[in-house]
Write a structure and sequence with these properties.
The chain is an alpha+beta fold. It contains 5 helices and 22 strands. The chain has a 6-stranded antiparallel β-barrel with strand order 3-4-5-9-7-6. A 4-stranded antiparallel sheet has the order 2-10-12-11, with helices on one face. A 3-stranded mixed sheet has the order 15-14-22, covered by helices on one side.
Length: 365
C-alpha cells in the first residue's frame, strides 16, 4: 500500500539521474553581461488609435520638440492629432557589442493610445544607467495584438499597446571594458550549490593539469587566467565553457495553482505518513410553485416555496500509509494507479508539507 500515497503529482517531468551539462549553461562569466537601455520616444502613423493630446500632454510636448528640431515652428499652435503616441523604448546592449551592430528593442505605450499597430517609431536615443547614449532606435513596430470597436462595443485581443522592432536600434557607443587585460575571471553559478561548484573546480583543474580554479563559495569559482599559461582570457573561457559537469540540485516541488501543475525533482522523498482524502458535496435546489385561485373565485396568486437539500460524499482514496521514504519509481507507480484530480493533489501536497513529511523545498506559484 506504499504507492497509495504517491498520488501527489500531476503531469510530472523528471529523470532518474542528472545528465552532464556544459559549464557555459551553468554559470555566468564575470564581465560577460548585458546592459539595460531605455528611451522616451514618439510613434507616428497610427490609424486614429494614438494618444488623446488632452489626456496626455507629454505627447504634445515631445511632438513639438521633434518638429522644432526639424525646423518646423509650432510655438503657440494648437493641434490635436490622433495618429501619434508617446512610448517607452527598452533594449539590452549585449556584451562586446560593437558600434554599428543592431539590437532588438521593445516599445510600450505610456499614454491612452489604443493600439500601436502599423506605427513607426521616430529616432529615439537609448540611455544606460550612467546617462550616456549607447544606441539609437527607429523603425516599424510589430505589435502582438489587435483591437476593434464600434458605436456600442469593442474587442481587444492580445496587447496591441506593446510591440517590438527586430534589429530596430543601432549601437553608437561601445562599453569601455578591457576583457583581454583580465588576470582572473569569476564564474558565478546560476543556481548556487557547493557540490556543483566543487565539481566545476575539479573539472577545470583536471583539464589544465594544475590548480587554476578555486571554489570561493557555493556560487563562485575563481579562475586564474595567468596560471593557465594560455595568455588570452578569451581562449581560456572558450576552452572552459564546453567542459561537462553533472550539476547537483536541491530536492524541490513546484506547484502552479492556476494550471494545476505539480513538478518534482528526482530526489524528493516522503517520510512515513497517513493520508485520507474525499469530497463532500452539499446541494440545495429551489423549485417554487405558483398557486392560482380557481376561475371566478376570490383570492390572490401565491408562490409556494419548495426546496430540496442533499449531501453527497464521493468515494475518496481512503487511508494511505507510507512505511518508509518513497522513491521516484514508486511515485510514478502511484500516479498511474490512482485517478486523483490536480486540484486535490495540490491540497494533499500542502497538507503533507505542513505535517513535515515532505523532504523537499516546497514552492507555490
Amino acid at each position: 500500500m506504499r504507492f497509495l500515497a504517491l498520488f501527489l503529482f500531476s503531469m510530472v517531468a523528471f529523470s532518474a539521474a542528472a545528465a552532464p551539462i556544459r559549464i557555459k549553461d551553468l554559470v555566468e562569466f564575470d564581465g560577460v553581461r548585458g546592459n539595460d537601455l531605455v528611451g522616451y520616444g514618439l510613434v507616428v502613423g497610427l490609424n486614429g488609435t494614438g494618444d488623446g493630446i488632452r489626456n496626455a500632454p507629454f505627447t504634445e510636448e515631445i511632438m513639438s520638440n521633434i518638429l522644432e528640431r526639424l525646423g518646423v515652428n509650432v510655438t503657440g499652435e494648437s493641434f490635436r492629432p490622433k495618429n501619434v503616441a508617446a512610448v517607452f523604448v527598452t533594449a539590452t546592449l549585449p556584451p562586446f557589442a560593437r558600434a554599428g551592430s543592431q539590437i532588438d528593442v521593445s516599445v510600450s505605450a505610456i499614454g491612452d493610445a489604443k493600439s500601436l499597430l502599423g506605427g513607426t517609431l521616430v529616432m529615439t536615443p537609448l540611455n544606460a544607467a550612467d546617462g550616456e547614449i549607447y544606441a539609437v532606435a527607429q523603425g516599424t513596430i510589430i505589435a502582438g495584438g489587435a483591437s476593434a470597436e464600434g458605436a456600442a462595443a469593442s474587442v481587444v485581443q492580445g496587447v496591441p499597446t506593446a510591440g517590438t522592432i527586430p534589429a530596430g536600434a543601432r549601437v553608437e557607443r561601445e562599453i569601455a571594458f578591457d576583457f583581454g587585460g583580465l588576470s582572473a575571471v569569476r564564474l558565478a553559478l546560476r543556481s548556487p550549490d557547493f557540490t556543483t561548484a566543487g565539481r566545476i573546480e575539479a573539472v577545470i583543474n583536471e583539464e589544465f593539469g594544475r590548480q587554476v580554479a578555486v571554489m570561493t563559495d557555493s556560487g563562485t569559482v575563481a579562475l586564474d587566467i595567468a596560471a593557465t599559461r594560455m595568455g588570452s582570457p578569451a581562449h581560456v573561457l572558450g576552452r572552459v565553457e564546453n567542459l561537462l559537469v553533472e550539476p547537483e540540485r536541491r530536492a524541490r516541488v513546484v506547484v502552479d495553482q492556476r494550471s494545476g501543475t505539480i513538478v518534482m525533482g528526482a530526489d524528493v522523498r516522503i517520510s512515513r505518513v497517513a493520508v485520507s482524502q474525499g469530497n463532500l458535496t452539499l446541494r440545495i435546489e429551489e423549485a417554487p410553485v405558483v398557486v392560482q385561485p380557481n376561475p371566478f373565485a376570490e383570492g390572490d396568486t401565491v408562490v409556494v416555496p419548495r426546496s430540496s437539500a442533499t449531501i453527497e460524499e464521493e468515494p475518496g482514496i481512503g487511508m494511505a500509509e507510507i512505511d518508509e521514504a518513497s522513491s521516484l519509481s514508486e511515485v510514478v507507480a502511484g500516479l498511474n494507479a490512482l485517478g486523483v484530480s490536480p486540484r486535490d493533489m495540490i491540497d494533499i501536497l500542502k497538507s503533507i508539507n505542513s505535517a513535515g513529511a515532505l523532504h523537499a523545498e516546497f514552492l507555490v506559484r
